[in-house]
Amino acid sequence: MSMPDEAQVIYDWNVNGAERPPKARKVLLVDETMRDGVQCPSVTDPPIEAKFDMLRLMAKIGVDCVDIGLPGAGPRAVADVTRLAELIRDEKLPISPNCAARTHANDITPILEITQKTGVMIEVMAFLGASPIRLYAEGWDVDLLEKRTRDSIRQAKKAGHTATFVTEDTTRADPETLRRLFFAAIEEGADGLCLCDTCGHATETGTRNLIAFARGVIAETGKNVRIDWHGHNDRGYGLSNAVAACEAGADRVHGCVLGVGERVGNTSLDQLLVNLKLMGWHDGDLTSLGALVDLTSQACNVPIPVSYPVFGKDAFRTGTGVHAAAVIKALNKGADWLADRVYSGVPAGWFGRHQVIEVGPMAGDSNIVYWLKFRGYEPTEARVSAIRTKAKSTNRLLEETEILEVLGGLA
């Protein structure tokens, strides 16, 4: 009997049925881990050597753009941004840098100076708050916002930089204010508009409504202006909103590795990449994505929850006899892809992970036999029986050292 292909053994309701998914298209990805991500109160800003390795891995997995910092924050930020720009230049990394800046000359000037020093064009991401609640709290008015918008975009464009106008709290801003600011930015030459769900307020419906509104304003100007989506996860909508933004026509979508960021964090870039890959929207090799997640966890001092999708310790780990038996039977058919899918909606091998079979109180003998064979031990009846007895006496999975201790007692 010949080995079936995936389509013959999996019926995919995500693409078959009355509602069909949008046609796949290229969406650019912007990583914010080294700027917005490290603004999380519990995150450690990584040393520059770790940032170098993170940047290399981002480029390797097909991240298109990276926010390398906010040089207006001070000398350390300027130093790190400069060295990261130099790394992109010297190693010819296929990734474009940008920097965040308030709509103020004091923030934008350091970006222009770093470009002059390194010869690396750095996109200016000029941001300001635009929602009524922010205006009330700050004592601002829309006239002031328009002036800051025009001044900042004009400064960046006069220096020859790509410039994106970023409205903070866009998802709670009124359309009249947004239209006025968008028109001002575009008139001054803005290359893009970045729509921000700064407080994690939006739902998928809100995301689609806002992108449609922005697209309509751009159409009124007759200019070709990019739309970015930048989301936070306060209501747990970070990932779903990012996918909705892709489907609604956003040109670039932002995220942070492990979803780090202020409060409960930003859109998880790694989960977004996983889903875009599974949707057929990302064609890059993501086998190094696990390495990026692990490095970010270590460098930023952010533990990965055991149940975190795809990259948590338990994502592809089972100690249940029925599950393990199915995986083992698939492996015995000589097909890694089958074992990677029989009890998993995500193929572990695509993302630098693999299936793990453990031994615990719910394990069957197949778990124990596999565990022994995988580590080069002959699965004799005496060994299997002794490990089974130990496993059934516990209320958790056995550690490797415990199983080795049982084997040692048989010697």
Report on the architecture of this protein:
The longest helix is centred in the middle third of the chain and has 18 residues, at 204-221. Helix 3 runs parallel beside helix 4. This protein folds into 2 domains: 28-300, Aldolase class I (TIM Barrel), CATH 3.20.20; 317-410, no CATH class. The chain has helices at residues 6-9, 48-61, 75-90, 105-118, 132-138, 142-158, 175-187, 204-221, 238-248, 269-279, 289-300, 321-332, 336-339, 365-374, 381-392, 400-410; strands at residues 28-31, 65-67, 96-102, 123-129, 163-168, 192-197, 226-231, 252-255, 317-318, 356-357. It is an alpha/beta fold and 411 residues long. The chain has 16 helices and 10 strands.
Descriptors for this entry?
alpha/beta, 411 residues, 2 domains, 8-stranded parallel β-barrel, two-stranded parallel sheet, TIM Barrel
- CATH topology (level 3) name of the largest domain: TIM Barrel
**Biggest sheet: strand arrangement:** 1-2-3-4-5-6-7-8
Question: CA-to-CA gap between the ends?
Answer: 43 Å
Number of DSSP E strands: 10
Structural class: alpha/beta
Examine the secondary-structure arrangement and name the CATH architecture of the largest domain.
Alpha-Beta Barrel
Q: Give the % helix.
A: 40-55%
* Low-pLDDT residue intervals, each spanning 5 or more residues: none
Count of helical stretches: 16
Quaternary structure: single chain
Cα Rg: 25 Å
What global shape is seen? elongated
- The CATH homologous superfamily of the largest domain is named Aldolase class I
The biggest beta sheet is recorded as: 8 strands, parallel, barrel
Mean pLDDT: 94
Number of domains: 2
